[in-house]
Every structure is written in structure tokens, then in C-alpha cells.
Design the sequence.
């Protein structure tokens, strides 16, 4: 019976060693899992912050695009106003020049008639 007992004791010792090894492995895996979860939570927080930043920047871009559109519209309006003012300013000058040219042509034609 003592040989039987020694065999059972050896099996029990082997089982205890296996259990201790598995406990150690479980402990190690638990620590690794906890670290992975902590890393995932940190990444999730960074992702949420990045999403907020992207949303804020998208809103700012839309506002800037609207301002750009308004500025383009104002530029077009002002350009048309400037063109009309330049045209209205030049028109009287052209009239004066045409009158002078007409007088010059009349004078030349009168002079040519007089010299003949």
C-alpha cells in the first residue's frame, strides 16, 4: 500500500505543480489583460478627443468657407461698382477728347479750305 500511496502522492505533487503553473499563468494573463484594457481605454479617450477636435475644425472650416463666399460676393459687387464708376468717370473725358478732336478736324478742314 505504501507503493500505491507513493504513486498517489507523486500524482498529487504533479497536479499541484500543474495547478501552481496554471495559477501563475492566469495571474500573468490577468495582468496583461488589465494592461491591454487600460491601453484600450486611453486610446478610446484620445479618439474621443480627436473626434471633438475634428468636429470643431470642421465647423470652423465651414464658417471660413461661408466668410470666403461672402467676401467673394462683396469683391464682385465692389468690382462692378468700380467698373461703373470708372466708366462714368471716363465717359465725360471721352466726350471732351472727342470735342477737341472734332474742333481740331474742323480747324484742319477750315485751314485746308482757306489755303486752297
Sequence:
Amino acid at each position: 500500500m505504501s507503493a500505491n500511496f507513493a504513486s498517489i502522492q507523486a500524482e498529487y505533487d504533479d497536479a499541484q505543480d500543474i495547478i501552481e503553473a496554471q495559477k501563475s499563468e492566469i495571474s500573468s494573463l490577468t495582468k496583461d489583460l488589465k494592461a491591454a484594457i487600460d491601453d484600450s481605454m486611453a486610446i478610446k479617450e484620445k479618439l474621443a478627443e480627436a473626434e471633438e477636435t475634428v468636429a470643431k475644425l470642421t465647423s470652423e472650416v465651414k464658417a471660413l468657407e461661408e466668410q470666403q463666399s461672402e467676401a467673394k460676393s462683396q469683391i464682385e459687387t465692389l468690382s462692378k461698382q468700380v467698373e461703373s464708376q470708372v466708366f462714368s468717370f471716363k465717359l465725360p473725358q471721352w466726350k471732351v477728347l472727342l470735342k477737341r478732336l472734332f474742333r481740331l478736324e474742323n480747324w484742319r478742314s477750315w485751314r485746308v479750305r482757306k489755303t486752297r
Remarks:
- Residues 102 and 108 are 10 Å apart (CA to CA).
- Residues 2-115 form the longest helix (114 residues).
